[in-house]
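assembly run, all chains below
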Amino acid sequence: MTTPDHHPEPFDAVDIIAAKRDRHRLADAQIDWVIDAYTRGVVAEEQMAALAMAVYLNGLDRAETARWTTAMVNSGTRLNFDDLGKPTADKHSTGGVGDKITLALTPLVASYGVAVPQLSGRGLGHTGGTLDKLESIPGWQAQISTQRMREIMRDVGGVVCAAGEDLAPADRRLYALRDVTGTVDCIPLIASSVMSKKIAEGTGALVLDVKVGSGAFMKDRESARLLASTMVEIGQDAGVTTTALLTDMFRPLGRTVGNALEVREAVEVLAGGGPEDVVELTVALAREMLTAVRVDADPADALCDGRAMDSWRAMVTAQGGDPDSGLPTATHTHEVTADRDGWLTHTDALAFGVASWRLGAGRARKEDPVQAGAGIELHTVVGEWVRAGQPLFSLHTDDPARFDRVLASLEDAWTVTGEEPEPRESVVLERIGD
Ligand code: URA
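ok done. output:
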């Protein structure tokens, strides 16, 4: 019932839920209203849960997905960096195991005079969060004001920080709701969730790293391609130059999984070293970002000549961190060795991600603390030959009671055989976009 003081609501949530349940298209006005009314608390959590499930089962078409995204952007503030005097470019990864790419990529691209507004999240489940990784650097602060973010982008270039409460608030609530209602892995809901935050963040160009494989949301190439092309179209429609790379997440990326361990590896890449796959992907994504903002340069150069490292040091310092202080290490380690001579032919990304999480690198609930030093160091990677007794990987944790369960969970996660595996051609499987 409405009183003279209240504007009547133009729609009823139940009608919208029923329409999607019965496989009808939602009208633009219905989508705008339901997202806005949910943000205002007029649409109840249980109603949005029912609608999310109806969308999960019956989908949204391209136009509905685009409108849903715009409605989520409009639920909060849209940042604008047009007055910065520099182009802006960002990267988003759909999340993987050992994915420390943002750490080296952000300063690398910034070293070419591009501002990188990287609003990141914390890890939930088996994929690590960039903020958790950076917080292993003593003094480093994830929480900074928009004003400070703008200053760092102007003076330093790269900034990695927590998204403010007013950035796509509808997505913040909806994502938490999806997490507890079995509606996370749904292409239109993932695409609109990711893109609403990236559009609201105010970047001019965006490259998406869409992971494919056991350690990723998308287990096969076809669904990864659909997610990538949906996101690319949404970005282009919103005026953000967007491309995507589909990349291999069947095995962990690089040789480390876990917060401080991954920071250490990213610093190796910035020093011109580091594992081949991490370097390849960092350079491929940097190339996409630089091309999108019309900077004609080979990003591999700045990794070799120290410019990217200088940019990293400035970026860490600007957020209170000490780039020269040592990184935390776990109090206990356990080494696993090969039981025979042979080729390492398989390391399962999901199993190693879950193992690292159980060692203490990740959290089960969003308020849980993480251990900075916990994780896994891979001494041997797929395609390498090992002798019996040679170390394959080490587990790191502050809580040794966790070793037995983790070791049991890793029993089928790797294979050493007498047959040499086919070499992997590239970590980048495919490119989507103009
Ligand atoms: N990351 C997001 O931000 N949203 C999703 O829906 C999935 C991954």
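The first strand starts at residue 89 and ends at 93.

The chain is about 40% helix and 15% strand.

not gonna interpret more than that til we talk
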